[in-house]
């Protein structure tokens, strides 16, 4: 334990050393000059970033973003006013690029296409694209979705994958894209669709917060792995450096794995339901070797 604490103390000193050795530019200069950091968050991406019953932002990604803010404060040598700003899948990249949001940690996929538009931190989570459906629907895989109403969230990779699958395989799915994950699951629960296609971690979150979690099953052959990361303005080396440092240290210290267990394998607010989402091989490897690689 003493060695671990010493290592973290040295790492923190290194961060402070970087601060004094470099002139502030870009987003960090903006934050320093204003004394405020604007952090984007999702409103219903359980368990990554969402509201509890008191409208407080909580979640796995939110905990990581607050740790990054803490290290930015260390780097700048001052306490910051933290402004939490809700975002959606459609507006998150524009809000980062126009400077409204300084950093966003939610359930945002880092892929090669998005890397042309924005900057990304080390990976914080790895997911598979699957579907959730009523356990009695008879739907076991994506091939069972022919001629059915299929729900997804607008502006996501899952929406693109679903539309490409529909066109390529002539499945005649009626794809309905909703504003947010909560709205999408509500449509499914209301009987207005056969399945909801999205990242498996988010599907487990929606299942957990439903009135009867046992009614729903997450299933289907993975339609691709994706890396979640925190997002900021493209080319901003300063804020990327702090974000990467923070996530790497959380990985090495065991803090990131502890966060995983807290949010994915134990009861969580607001209803104390356990997502029952065991750690994957990909996540176990990520804890050992933090990196900022996109899957596609």
TrEMBL record:
Signal peptide segment: 1-21
One Pfam family cited in the UniProt record for this chain: SBP_bac_3
Keywords: Signal, Transport
SUPFAM superfamilies with a match to the protein in the record: Periplasmic binding protein-like II
Family: Belongs to the bacterial solute-binding protein 3 family.
Listed NCBIfam families: PRK10797.1
Protein name listed in UniProt: Glutamate/aspartate ABC transporter substrate-binding protein
């Amino acid at each position: 334990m003493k060695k671990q604490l010493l290592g973290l103390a040295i790492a923190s000193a290194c961060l402070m050393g970087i601060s004094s050795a470099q002139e502030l530019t870009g987003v960090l200069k903006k934050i320093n000059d204003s004394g405020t950091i604007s952090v984007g968050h999702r409103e219903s991406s359980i368990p990554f970033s969402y509201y509890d019953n008191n409208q407080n932002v909580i979640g796995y990604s939110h905990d990581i973003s607050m740790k990054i803010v803490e290290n930015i404060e260390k780097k700048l040598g001052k306490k910051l006013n933290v402004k939490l700003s809700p975002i959606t899948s459609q507006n998150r990249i524009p809000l980062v690029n126009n400077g409204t949001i300084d950093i966003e940690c939610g359930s945002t996929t880092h892929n090669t296409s998005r890397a042309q538009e924005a900057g990304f931190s080390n990976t914080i989570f790895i997911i598979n694209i699957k579907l959730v459906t009523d356990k009695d629907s008879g739907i076991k895989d994506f091939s069972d979705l022919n001629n059915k109403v299929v729900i997804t969230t607008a502006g996501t990779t899952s929406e693109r994958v679903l539309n490409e699958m529909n066109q390529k395989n002539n499945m005649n799915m009626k794809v309905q894209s909703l504003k947010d994950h909560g709205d999408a699951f509500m449509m499914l629960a209301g009987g207005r669709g056969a399945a909801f296609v999205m990242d498996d971690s988010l599907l487990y979150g929606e299942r957990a917060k439903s009135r009867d979690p046992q009614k729903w099953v997450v299933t289907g052959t993975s339609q691709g792995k994706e890396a979640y990361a925190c997002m900021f303005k493209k080319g901003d080396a300063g804020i990327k450096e702090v974000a990467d440092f923070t996530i790497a240290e959380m990985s090495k210290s065991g803090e990131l794995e502890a966060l995983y267990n807290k949010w994915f394998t134990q009861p969580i607010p607001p209803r104390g339901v356990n997502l029952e989402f065991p750690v994957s091989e990909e996540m176990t490897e990520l804890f050992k070797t933090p990196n900022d690689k996109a899957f596609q």
